[in-house]
Amino acid sequence: MSLNITLAFGGGAELLFGNVKENKVTLEKAVEQWTIKTLLVWIKDNLLQHSPEMFIRGDTIRPGIMVLVNDCDWELLDKNDYVIEDGDIVTFISTLHGG
After folding, report:
1. Nearest-5° angle of CA 23, CA 72, CA 42?
2. 36: closest CA among 93, 76, 74?
3. pTM of the predicted model, to two decimals?
4. What is the DSSP letter of 79?
5. Gap between the Cα atoms of 19 and 30, Å rounded
6. Residue 30, burial from CB neighbour count under 10 angstroms (0-12, 13-18, 19+)
7. DSSP tally for the chain: helices H, then strands E
8. Residue 98 gets which letter from DSSP?
9. For every one of its 99 residues, what pLDDT tens digit does the chain have, with 9 covering 90 and above?
């Protein structure tokens, strides 16, 4: 069985992904349980086109990028440990802007 989710990028984060603001992806159930932490590795390996240091720090998202799951702040949902569900919309919004 697989999970079909939507990944959205905004606030400039999409620039790291070839200016693509939304990706509908299928995650195979090869992983016992998909979490934000395992999703970040998948994103880094499959979608991120350059400058991983601008998106990921260690095994989590870098400060300055807000993460929403179904429009809810991931900090309310166990952050990296949130278990991804079929149909989830995971949004990454950069809050860092030049000026």
Report:
1. 35
2. 74
3. 0.93
4. G
5. 29
6. exposed
7. 1, 7
8. -
9. 799 999 999 999 999 999 999 999 999 887 679 999 999 999 999 999 999 999 999 999 999 999 999 999 999 999 999 999 999 999 999 997 655
